Amino acid sequence: MGDAIRAQVLVVGGGPGGYVAAIRAGQLGLDTVIVEADRLGGTCLIRGCVPSKAFIHVAGKFEAMREAADGNALGLVLEAAPRLDLAQTVRWKEGIVDRLSGGVAALLKRAKVRVIQGWAVFSDAKTCSVQTDDGALTIAAEHVILANGSEPIALPGLPFGGPVLSSSEVLSLQRLPEKVAVIGAGYIGLELGIAFRKFGSEVTVVEARERILPLYDEQLTQPVRKWLEQAGVALHLGAKARGLVNGAALAVETAEGAAIEIPADAIFVSVGRKPRTAGWGLERMAIDMNGSFVKVDDQCRTAMRNVWAIGDLVGEPMLAHKASAQGEMVAEIIAGHRRRFDPATIPAVCFTEPEIVTAGLLPTEAAEAGTEIVTGLFPFAANGRALSMEGGGEGGFVRVVARRDNHRVIGVQAVGTHVSELSGEFVTAIEMGAVLEDVAATIHVHPTLSEAFHESALRALGHAIHI
Ligand code: FAD
After folding, report:
1. Which residue lies with its CA nearest to atom 15 of ligand 1?
2. What does pTM read for this prediction?
3. Does the CB atom of residue 188 touch ligand 1 within 6 A?
4. pLDDT tens string 403-425
5. Mind listing the pLDDT tens digit for each residue in 375-399?
């Protein structure tokens, strides 16, 4: 029989869902405990969003240096080809991760949240036990916030191990693989596949569907497709990965039904993630499920009173900012605030080459919903800032989608270099109910990429200036 503690709020999982919920609960004066088995920060900080973007940053720098060594139009000259020390890249990335994880610990401490390290196993909906370094600990709480997150999906016939890697192992490789086969052309597979191509690996992408990034329309993904082709990334669409051949090749059935082998010293399986629902006593909590996800209502309440669930555990979109927004909301509801999870949109970014931003409805989605729309598209080829950053010639653009009747902006998408930083403006316009005339009447700084948003609204209104 070990120690026992009680709390008003018990949070399980220290990812962007759980740690934000715990900080907010602490800020609101709730006696809060958070349990995390690994380092604080979860998938996002430790082996997801941030490490992958660090890799992408280094890959971009390396590519620019290689281009300088080859001689380029910018007048930059490198006398010798650059060399990549991937082990050092990984150490640098780990430094960022340590800093962020330490920052989360400091924020939790400031909010007076007790942090328990270990794996929580529930015996009933409000009680769990944790095997800590100091022995067994039982925690009972009035409210439980489940933020257990998600884990990579393995393919049948291709279990993780050896050359078959999930994103976690890919982000910790010590040596650059010569030949990388990426299975899955979703955002995680493409982001990292593109980074490895920039590092100099030969990259082949195998995707079961007929398109890359199948959640987006062709117009939006075309510039990424073009980059992949120009960079020499082999794409097998409509193809199925069948298994490993002698530990050194991937067996693939092509769209035409041919059996081929793709030589690879690293096979990166990136076919999606599944909620982490096993191994911690979920079955003892009398909670309803929604398919493989925990079922919640629009306040993130589960079927069990005072048990809440957030983030990747409860469904798509599996994104860090959604998890955090839900975590903040749940803490506030527990503290007595009136809140509901009802965002106008949850924006998303693919940090591909070039980047893609989506906020709100695509034109196709608006049409499916029966909404009559007007759209305005402004190409970065006509934007001075994009051209001065070498981002004008890649077919990028900003596209605004508005209701035809009242001009309310219901969607904004962009593809192009550095467009991820425009996502805030897009989502603010949608969330605040802007109409095209609001965007058109807002003076945007010159020269910036954001001018393309302004011009897209002008174009939807029929009077763009620069096109
Ligand atoms: P997680 O971050 O998965 O955290 C759950 C935590 O709970 C884990 O730390 C786990 O150890 C802990 N845990 C689980 N069960 C227990 C238990 N029983 N006891 C103790 N601890 C437990 N999202 C974006 O928004 N932008 C991006 O650019 C982006 N890039 C990504 C890149 C990659 C390579 C990957 C893999 C993911 C990326 N994501 C991105 C997705 C993002 O990481 C997740 O949506 C986000 O981390 C979900 O947060 P969460 O709090 O729900 O769960």
Report:
1. 148
2. 0.97
3. yes
4. 999 999 999 999 999 999 999 99
5. 999 999 999 999 999 998 889 999 9
Please indicate whether residue 451, judged by its CB atom, sits closer than 6 Å to ligand 1.
Answer: no
**CATH number of the structural domain 4-47+90-151+274-334:** 3.50.50.60
Query: Which CATH code, of 3.10.20.310, 3.30.390.30, 1.10.10.10, 3.40.50.720, is assigned to 348-460?
Result: 3.30.390.30
> Could you tell me the residue ranges of all domains in the chain?
4-47+90-151+274-334, 164-271, 348-460
Is the CB–ligand 1 distance for residue 321 below 6 Å? Answer: yes
Tell me which CATH code domain 164-271 carries: 3.50.50.60
> Quick one: average pLDDT of 130-151?
97
Q: Name the residue of 33, 44, 108 whose CB sits within 8 Å of the most ligand 1 atoms, as the mutation to test its pocket.
A: 44
* Alpha carbons 190 and 184: distance in angstroms, whole number: 8
Is residue 446 part of the annotated active site? The answer reads: yes
What span, in angstroms and rounded, lies between the C-alpha atoms of 384 and 400?
Answer: 20
What's the pLDDT tens digit per position in 150-181?
A: 999 999 989 999 999 999 999 999 999 999 99
Mean pLDDT of the chain: 97
Query: Which pair of tokens denotes residue 93?
Result: 């990335």
Closest CA to 411 of 393, 434, 390, 389: 434
Same fold, 4-47+90-151+274-334 and 164-271: yes
Average pLDDT over residues 101-118: 98
pLDDT of 93: 97
Q: Are 353 and 194 in contact (CB under 8 A)?
A: yes
